[in-house]
Amino acid sequence: MTTWTTDTVLLPVPLKLAHRVAAFLESLEGENETPAARGDVGTVSDADADATVLVPDQGLWTEGMVRQLADGLTYPGVTALLDRCAAEPDRWVVKSDVEQAGGISPIQLRNELGALSKLTKRLFGGAATWPMQWRKGKGKYYYRMPAAVAEWWLAARAGSEA
Q1: How many angstroms separate the CA atoms of 56 and 147, rounded?
Q2: What integer best gives the mean pLDDT of the chain?
Q3: Are residues 23 and 96 in the same domain?
Q4: What is the mean pLDDT of residues 134-150?
Q5: CATH number for the domain including 129?
Q6: Same domain, 89 and 154
Q7: Domain containing 139: what range?
Q8: Residue 113: count of CB within 10 angstroms of its CB
Q9: Which superkingdom heads the taxonomic lineage of this protein's source (predicted)?
């Protein structure tokens, strides 16, 4: 747990993300500890001990999480959206462009995104988390995937199609 010292700063954090920020800070404080000292022995495999990437407004993602999602995802609209975001990392992708390119109705993709939330809750426990950031502006929805997550997604998809 973080304590107040002369090296501590106040940082505004949206209330809905406070628990994630607290967990992230705790993970940083324990970076120099061994897995045994943290009590992590037997809970983290070498494959899952990847680097983490913070997806804004969503949370931390690892390569293992991305592989798990790619293996468990059965929604073609969401898959098309994730594929498009991965093909254009760090750029905002317009949801309607993906719908039009894939012949997917807006209602279908909206429903699949809801199902994605349920899937990630089940796969990773706790709150729903997506490997992409989203925002609404000018009557449209936009999605963006960090470059590292995009690289993991493309590798996972290539592996699952082989």
Answers
A1: 13
A2: 83
A3: no
A4: 96
A5: 1.10.10.10
A6: yes
A7: 51-161
A8: 19
A9: Bacteria
Both tokens of residue 91?
């750029």
Could you tell me if 111 and 157 lie in one domain?
yes
For position 148, what pLDDT does the model report? 97
Pairwise CA distance, residues 55 & 128, whole Å: 13
- For the chain, how big is the Rg over CA atoms in Å? 17
Copy the structure tokens of residue 79. Answer: 């898959």
28 with 81, same domain: the answer is no
Distance CA(126)–CA(58), nearest Å, equals 12
Do 73 and 8 belong to one domain? no
Contact, 34 vs 49, CB < 8 A?
A: no
pTM beyond 0.90, yes or no = no
Which residues face 52 on adjacent strands? 62
Name the band, by pLDDT with cuts 50, 70 and 90, for residue 95.
very high
Helix (H) or strand (E) holding 55: strand 52-55
Q: How many CB atoms lie within 10 A of CB 86?
A: 23
Give tens-digit pLDDT for 29-59: 655 443 434 443 333 334 445 589 999 999 9
Identify which of 64, 36, 60, 35 has the alpha carbon closest to the alpha carbon of residue 48.
64
